[in-house]
Structures are given as C-alpha cells and as structure tokens.
Amino acid sequence: MTATQAPAPRDTAGPALVELDDVSKYYGNIKALENVSLEVRAGEISCVLGDNGAGKSTLIKIIAGLHRHDAGTFRIEGEETTLANPRDALDRGIATVYQDLAVVPLMPVWRNFFLGSEPTKGVGPFKRLDVRRMRETTRAELLRMGIDLRDVDQPIGTLSGGERQCVAIARAVYFGAKVLVLDEPTAALGVKQSGVVLKYVAAARDAGLGVVLITHNPHHAYLVGDRFVLLKRGAMSGSHTKDDVTLDELTRQMAGGSELEELSHELERAPSPDRLGGRPVGDDTP
Amino acid sequence: MTATGQPAAPHTDERLLRTSPLRKLLGRPELGSVVGAAAVFLFFAIVADSFLQASSLGTVLYAASTIGIMAAPVALLMIGGEFDLSAGVMVTSSALISSMFSYQMTANVWVGVFVSLLVTLGFGAFNGFMLTRTKLPSFIITLGTFLMLTGLNLGFTKLISGTVSTRTIGNMEGFESARKVFASYLTIGDVELKVTILWWAALVALATWILIRTRFGNWIFAVGGEADAARAVGVPVVRTRIGLYLGVAFAAWVSGQHLLFSYDVVQSGEGVGNELIYIIAAVIGGCLITGGYGSAIGSAVGAIIFGMTSKGIVYAEWNPDWFKFFLGAMLLLATLLNAWVRKRAEATK
C-alpha cells in the first residue's frame, strides 16, 4: 500500500466544508478544548492526532452535533452555525462514525445499514419498509468495498471490528455525506484490517468527501492525511499540511516531542537489563 | 491506494461459515417458547383427560388472550429496552374511569369509554415523558406510577361510590353495544370463543407488522439494543420510547373495557401483580430483559403457555396453588433456553 500519488482534484478555492476557528468547549470549570482550529476540504483528509485525554472526543462531538461549542466559530460551507443535534449534523451532510457505538450489535446488517434513514414504500397505514431494496443495497454496497457477506441477516455484532467500521463508513457514503468524521477507526484493529479500513477511507476521499480522521497513530495518519492537527491537553500543539511535515517529525511531536527525547536519554542511561531483578524501566515501550 | 472504483476482488471470507437452516431456526427469538409450549401441551394432554376436549380450547385461549393483549405491547416495550410495572393496575384504572365517568355523568357509556381511552393514554404519556425527561430507570418511574395508580384506584372509588367497587352500569345506554365490542363471544360448534381472542390476534398481528415491517419497528430494536448508536444515526429515541408506552396504555384500555363489560362492576383493587405476568409472557416468548431482541409472536406463545398451565392444572384436578410454581419454573427454563439459543446463534464470531 502506497500513499496516494495522484490526489483527487482538491477544492482549494472557496470556503471549506467545515471550518473550526479558535473553538473552545468547557465542562463546568474544565477546559476540554481551547482555541482549536481545523479545516476540512472536499477531497482531503484532515487528521486530528492526540494522546488519550487530548480532547479528540470533545472535538468530534462538536462536529457531530452532540455538544455545542462555547467559544470560537464553527462554519459549515462558509456559514456560521451551531448544530442542535446529530440529526441536524446529518442533514447538513456531516456523518460521524464512532469507534464503539456505530452500530446496534444484535440487529441484522441490513437493518443497521439503513438505521435512521429507512426507505419505505406504500402509503398511509400500509407504508412499510422496502425490505428487498434494503437487503440488496446493503449487499451491493458492502461488496463494493470488498466485504462479501453470505448473509446480510446476520447480526452485525458477528462481523469483525474492521468490517463493522467499513459498514458504518459505507453507510455514511451511501447516504450522501459530504463530510465524514471517523473516530479512531483503526484503534482496535490488526495490521491487515487497519489497511482495509484506511483503503476505504482513501476511497471516500477520492469520491470527493472531506474526511476528518481522528487517531493516535501517526503512521496511519501520515499514510492518508493531507492536514494534521495535533492536540495536547485540550489545546492545539501543532497544525501542518503534508508538505511541511515528515512522518518522523509528526511521530516525534505526537509522542510528546521533548518529553520523548528526555525519555530516550533516560532509556539510554538505563543499565542493561539484568534479567533477574532488573529495573522495569522501558518494559512497556515497543 | 487503489481501492477506488475497482470492484473489490470477490473474495469469500473463510471465517464465515455457511448458515444451515437449523442455525437460522435457532436464531428465531420465539423458538424457545414454541418448544416450551409444545412440552406443556403434551404434558397436560397426558395428565388431564378433559384438556383435549374442544370446549377446553376456548377456555385456554380466553385465559391466554387476557394476558396476551397486554403481553404484545409489553414485549415491544421490552424490546425497546424498558419496563412498565404500572401495566397491571392501569387496566383497572381504565375500567374504573369508564364506569365511574358514565355513571356520574349519566352519559352514554361510550362517552365514558372514550374518556377512559384519553386518560389511559395520558398515563402512558406520563410514563414516557417522565422516563425520557428524567432519564431515571423505567423500573423506578413505572414503579412510582404503579403505586400511585393503585392508590388512586382505591381512593377515588371509595370517595365516589362509597365502596371498593363501582356501581353497576348494566342498564345504561350503550352498555349492550359496548359489551358486544369488548366482552361478547361467538360459538363455533362446541367451542365458545370470547371476542378478546380476536382483539388479541389483531394486536399481535399489528405489533408484529410494526416490529418487522415499519421504520418504527426498526427504531424499537435500535433503541433497545444500543440507544446511543441509534441517537447518533438520527433515530428519534425519545419519540420511540413514548410511542411504546402509549402502545401499552392502549392495550390497557382494551383490557380494562373487557373487564368492565364482562363483569359490569369493577373491583378497584384488581390488577396488582398482573404486570409481572405480562413481563413473564414476553420473556418466555424470547424477549431479552436488556432489550434489543424479541418478538410479538413470542409473547403470544408465552401467553398461550400461561393459559394452558393455569387451566391445565384445573383440568388435571390439582390444587391451583401449584400454578405459581409452574409459572416460575417455566420462566427460568425459558430464559435459560433463550440464552443458550442466542449464544449458539451468535457463535459465528
């Protein structure tokens, strides 16, 4: 898998699909997010990187309409807005795929695929789900992304984590999302499955969507990303485009920059492991 | 990164096993209850001679229908992840309201019946609004409603009629026609079938239709299975929950009117404890107590098991005191079977 060589035509003129400008969010007296700016353009992937507790989740929840920001401006296609709820976000073309709560595990795949936007046929009291269309569309859309389901009736909880992510992404793309927000899509996945998901993320980008990719894995981010925003303890610690940053630099910043250097010195100074009773320093570093 | 456009190679996933028809059958939520119903039927067919007579069929079905009318919407509610402990006394409330309103206003009883419908739906709406506003567990909310309604039933009845039961309204205008709708019976051969059986069949059919063929049904499963995910994809979670409580209230109204028009007078203390029987019928029928899974037809099978057991014990000429024991044992067995079946069905992971 190589990073894209010929990116889809980017829409650099005109307003961004989503633009956050110095956005802040407070929970009581806790600064969950402060002065964060982010730009999402059609055909681009904007990555948000940060360690646990950096404010990534808060950021998504604002973009997805689950929370309202307390300060700064939030523009959708140039127009300043505050989203009322997730439905509002969806109606404006922002679809969010959450790491854990993207699907209802006990429901069949096809019911999950159309959940919240089910097609119906018939009128009045005979208005009913268009079950055949739902099943066939689900099957076809999943096949397009390389998931060949023998049975779209199986509970979605029986699919693997990567497949579930792909179903959720396919769903968002199918329903005409303009902006796709992905919350740690590769966090719980193995190498191969991560590859499948990233491939699909890139496919969504090439289809002209603007993608927000939240992750704590700089390698995954650098493979597909066009812009990178680093969050640290609720504040923005860096903002780059792909041209002005290297993977090493990104990894270094992501891992804490100077803190990492300090750690590396410490590790170097650590005595060679004395198998029995050696100090546990470095035990948990890869 | 070459995934775009190109149809992915049709690779078959070696981790997916072929689904056998048997496994599909095992995946049905009603399975456990159907097996249980067959076992109960066989058991009483052997031990009770009169159980297989045609006239017994009407009696068993009638017993089943009085539970089943409520069990169907209660099953939907449980699939939606909530309880309604007030369902039992709400039936009594609904009957009391019709009776007392008609009597006090000396109006046509249909006026009382209509007022009762509105007020009973009001109880359902109260449950739903309290649940969605306060976000307290439905167990607590409806336990509160249960106690309040029990008190109101007794208090108002004593206040208005001076005793614990209502006055007779049998000679009032509209009583006969209302009795036809809610408490008549038709005789086919030797079998006497109460009209509640029709109400029951209609409600189960409607509930099944809603559950598996409408958007609302899809939302019920989603809200019960994973409410946060449902909300995130735009399912109106609040409306769905309130709708479910309104469904229970509507069935309580039907049951209440049956109670009133078959006995003419209503005892204000009735109905306590029935809410658990509805829940038991739904659970025996395959509803998960945690929500997200189950069926309306299962609740009907649960109600039939209930009807067969309660009447079968009589036909077997045993002491009916044993009934509760059977019900409890059945509940445990059904729940264990359901849990086992579901594990098997999902074991493809």
TrEMBL record, chain A:
Residues 18-258 form the ABC transporter domain. PROSITE patterns: ABC_TRANSPORTER_1, ABC_TRANSPORTER_2. Pfam families: ABC_tran. InterPro entries: AAA+_ATPase (IPR003593), ABC_carbohydrate_import_ATPase (IPR050107), ABC_transporter-like_ATP-bd (IPR003439), ABC_transporter-like_CS (IPR017871), P-loop_NTPase (IPR027417). It comes from the Bacteria. Residues 258-286 are annotated as: Disordered. This is ABC transporter related protein. It comes from Streptomyces pratensis (strain ATCC 33331 / IAF-45CD).
From TrEMBL, chain B:
It comes from the Bacteria. It is found in: Cell membrane. InterPro entries: ABC_transp_permease (IPR001851). It is a multi-pass membrane protein. The chain crosses the membrane at residues 31-48, 60-78, 109-129, 136-156, 195-212, 276-293, 322-341. Coiled coil: none annotated. Pfam families: BPD_transp_2. The keyword Membrane applies. Keywords: Cell inner membrane, Cell membrane, Membrane, Sugar transport, Transmembrane, Transmembrane helix, Transport. Part of the binding-protein-dependent transport system for D-xylose. Probably responsible for the translocation of the substrate across the membrane. This is Xylose transport system permease protein XylH. It comes from [Kitasatospora] papulosa.
